[in-house]
């Protein structure tokens, strides 16, 4: 294989040039589907006017598009949604991704654990990180902790890296903390997350840029991201707000000319940002104070 061939990846005769993640990138979010088995009242997927138009990539397309990425051992391709395991080709997608690429998963674990364990070996979703590679969301409004804990214990006994996260929503924080105590007693890693979004006319969460999410105005700014976000149809978006609002994508993962443009871009939608993009949070090394985007005023 010559150098040019080594820099290209593809199946079905359709080679695509590799796409290297910039050194400053912190996250690769692959939204396989926005479908979900549950309907949580505070679901961030419904923060905007999520568009469901367009088709969803199939297993071959996802494998081809994701396999062209060049990441780092500490920067996995994170499969998420919606509930990513609801993609009809979920198992084929996981097995089709270039094996050297680290993969992890955000799931509500409403899945057939036996089939998952039969088709995905524990090592495929395990990486060096101070938290679990399979991160299960617990939502007391729509889930029961006892069967969830049983599933997690089954996966743990099979050698998978699994932990549970619960959102401290003002209406269900006590239930989350009770579930946390139940799981910790059984040796399950259960962590909590700050609630992001509106509740009783109050915006909850800690944000780096005042006024970004309230929707009170729309202002032109310059914005630069540290995340590669890919929607169910393969479109690449500059932020969660663009993804959920169905704004114009900045590229497509199956476009041979696609490159990651690591620069500030002009945006007219500041004031209608999504909490995921502007909250202060920990980065992949669990360091505090990180935001997904940097925003500057001006054109
Ligand atoms: S499990 Fe997650 S994606 Fe599904 S409805 Fe609940 S919050 Fe939304
Ligand atoms: S300013 Fe807000 S809406 Fe615009 S690109 Fe940045 S995060 Fe997205």
Question: How is the secondary structure organized here?
Answer:
Layout lengths: L2 H4 L1 E4 L2 E4 L1 E2 L6 E5 L27 H9 L1 E2 L6 E4 L9 H7 L6 E5 L5 H7 L14 E5 L6 H13 L4 E7 L4 H13 L4 E5 L2 E3 L2 E3 L14 E7 L1 E4 L4 E3 L2 H6 L5 E2 L12 E6 L4 H4 L14 E5 L2
Parallel strand pairs: 3-5, 4-6, 4-14, 6-7, 7-8, 8-9, 9-10
Antiparallel strand pairs: 1-2, 11-12, 13-17, 13-18, 14-15, 15-16
Describe the structure.
With 299 residues, the chain is of the alpha/beta class. It has a single domain, classed as Aldolase class I (TIM Barrel, Alpha-Beta Barrel). It has helices at residues 3-6, 59-67, 90-96, 113-119, 145-157, 173-185, 240-245, 275-278; strands spanning 8-11, 14-17, 19-20, 27-31, 69-70, 77-80, 103-107, 134-138, 162-168, 190-194, 197-199, 202-204, 219-225, 227-230, 235-237, 251-252, 265-270, 293-297. The chain has a 9-stranded mixed β-sheet. A 3-stranded antiparallel β-sheet has the order 17-13-18, with no helix packed on it. Helix 2 packs parallel to helix 3 (90-96). The longest helix is centred in the middle third of the chain and has 13 residues, at 145-157. Residues 1-6 and 9-13 have low confidence and may be disordered.
């Amino acid at each position: 294989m010559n150098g040019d061939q080594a820099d290209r990846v593809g199946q079905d005769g359709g080679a695509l040039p590799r796409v290297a993640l910039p050194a400053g990138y912190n996250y690769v979010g692959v939204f396989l589907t926005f479908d979900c088995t549950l309907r949580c009242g505070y679901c961030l997927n419904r923060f905007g006017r999520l568009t469901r138009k367009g088709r969803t990539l199939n297993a071959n397309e996802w494998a081809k598009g994701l396999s062209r990425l060049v990441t780092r051992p500490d920067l996995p391709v994170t499969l998420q949604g919606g509930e990513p395991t609801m993609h009809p080709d979920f198992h084929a997608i996981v097995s089709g991704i270039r094996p050297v690429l680290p993969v992890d998963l955000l799931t509500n674990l409403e899945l057939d654990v036996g089939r998952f364990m039969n088709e995905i070996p524990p090592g495929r979703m395990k990486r060096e990180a101070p938290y679990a590679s399979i991160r299960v969301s617990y939502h007391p409004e729509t889930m029961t902790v006892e069967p969830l804990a049983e599933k997690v214990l089954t996966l743990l006994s099979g050698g998978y890296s699994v932990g549970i996260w619960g959102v401290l929503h003002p209406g269900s924080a006590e239930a989350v903390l009770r579930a946390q105590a139940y799981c910790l007693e059984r040796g399950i890693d259960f962590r909590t997350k700050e609630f992001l979004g509106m509740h009783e006319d109050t915006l909850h969460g800690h944000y780096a840029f005042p006024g970004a999410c309230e929707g009170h105005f729309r202002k032109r700014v310059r914005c630069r991201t540290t995340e590669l976000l890919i929607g169910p149809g393969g479109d690449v978006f500059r932020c969660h707000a663009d993804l959920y609002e169905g704004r114009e994508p900045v590229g497509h993962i199956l476009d041979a000319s696609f490159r990651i443009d690591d620069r500030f871009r002009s945006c007219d939608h500041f004031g209608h940002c999504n909490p995921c993009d502007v909250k202060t949070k920990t980065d992949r090394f669990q360091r505090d104070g990180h935001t997904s985007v940097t925003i500057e005023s001006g054109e």
